[in-house]
GOLD domain-containing protein (Spathaspora passalidarum), 207 residues
Amino acid sequence: MDLHKDTILIGRYKMEITTDATNAGDSYTSYSYHTPLDKKEIGVVIDVEEVFDNNHRVVRQRGFAVGQFSFNTLDSGQHRICLTPKSFLRQAWFRNNVDSYIVKDSKFAMARIGIELAIGDTTLLDSKRSRDVQTIKEQVYGLNNKLSLIRREQLFIREKEAHFRDLSERTCETVVNWVMIQLGAMVILFIYQAIRISKIFEKRKID
């Protein structure tokens, strides 16, 4: 595949296997294919090589039976993309209560892989990332504004609570003062009445 520099290649693939073939030369279309039960341990090895640079390998990774891969081209030229079906199950795992169907899948006779490739410019990707970053910044800015508004409302509520508390304290203090004044007036009036009555009784005794 001929790719230009600064190109991003995205490949989506699906691997299917058959355990029915007994002759590698038989036509694979005559067998029943299915996706492996264990899509993690029965998958593919993904290789991307730069043919123009003596088949220099730029990507080698393990992939699931169904998945995708991507890479950015560093130079323009012919690239080779290879997906090799492979079982990653170890022989020792077969003794650890592994499902017999998974073991059977791991010994598949043939495999076929369907793949879809999408090619894009990394500058477009960077532009999209920049827009995403800008969107995130705007969202953060909006959240900060909302947070500032909430803080102002909390401050306003605290000020109202403090004002109400001061008003309540002053009201209570005023009520207590008036009660004390009234009690003092009643005590003075009581003493005055007592003295007056006492003088009246003394005057009657003298007469």
User: Anything to note?
Assistant: The two ends are 141 Å apart (CA to CA). The beta strands are 2-3, 7-18, 42-50, 56-63, 66-72, 77-87, 110-121. The chain has a mean pLDDT of 83. The first strand starts at residue 2 and ends at 3.
